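Batch manifest, entry 17 of 40.
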Amino acid sequence: MSSNVFVSKHPLVQLKVAELRAASNTPRQVRELTDAIGRLLMYEVTQDLPLTTSGEKRSPVGTFEGRSLATRQALVPILRSGLSLLSAASDLLHDAEIRHLGLFREEATLMPVEYYNKLPRECAVDECLILDPMIATGGTAVAAIEMLKLWGAPKIKFVSICASRNGIEMVAKKFPDVTFYVAVVDDTLDKNGFVVPGIGDCGDRLNNTA
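Output type: structure tokens
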């Protein structure tokens, strides 16, 4: 695995991924499990955030030096399934900008198609976190990263639940300056571009539109 790919080894992440894979899950269970995995992953994603002092504060029994984040973040969910990770990310980074990108994979060619992009003219953040539960062929991930680089994002992290080995290796090698955080990597990608055993069509499972 490329050095810029971090696969979580946390036992609770692995437990919840196994639960998420189950085809018998209701949409509510899929949403709850996706959110829970996202919250666990976010602790790893944010472990390198720099802090700065924010003046003297008072506890119930004395004074202390306050802390605040030294950098500005943007959360970028890829519509539509990326929204399932937004609550987990925004609950921790509650002052982050939220910027949406709309991309879908064309079924015949498996190529990404952009349908929504409302990024402002100027990038005013220090770091962008792309949120997308799946990296299959890697085409959507490449398109999203290129859009943010063109926007001027100085640093990019990609947060995902399930990735194919070929897909994430391709994207990680293409963008060695991007860091990828995933819960699980599966070896197989079928002829339809689905990760096996994977977690199925995440958008359909989340939205009950299968």
